[in-house]
Amino acid sequence: MPTYALLIRGINVGGNKRLAMADLRQLLTGLGYADVRTHLQSGNALFRTAKTKQDALATQIEKAIAADLGLTVRCMTRSAAEMLAVIEANPFAEFATQGSKLLAMFLSASPEASRLAAHDPRELDPEGVRLGERVIYHWCPNGFLQAPNVGAFVEKNLRVAVTARNWNTVTKLAAMLQPDAR
What we know:
With 182 residues, the chain is of the alpha+beta class. Helix content is 34%, strand content 23%. Strands 2-3-1-4 form a four-stranded antiparallel sheet, with helices on both faces.
């Protein structure tokens, strides 16, 4: 059975949309997922399932969180191979050595080419933004608060959902997805 990373957008940030990780683990187990684990308190989980349609997995989890826990959230899933591909494609790997200042913004879908041509997020920060496969890399050497809000720009103009994780979290999740990490 494949293992997936679940990335939930906007929970446990600034006291909003509180979701205990124990409740999340119980919910995912109740949906029939195996080997459920969470990482940190910010909506990161790992699970195994024979189901392979990731959009359907995310939708099922979103609906269960709404029905069982009363929270409306966006969820995205990535396979172990997809997480490793994000790491391998890191365009800032040579100099972005502080993982807390590098974001991987996971997109719910690939943006439409016409929208991307009209609203390219690289224009917000030409030195710090690079596009990948359903991911945007954002290097923020002066910290996130000093950087443009690329996620909000993308959601508004490209009309895809975004959830961001710093590089430390991305690499930890990828490591936890490996079979020998259980």
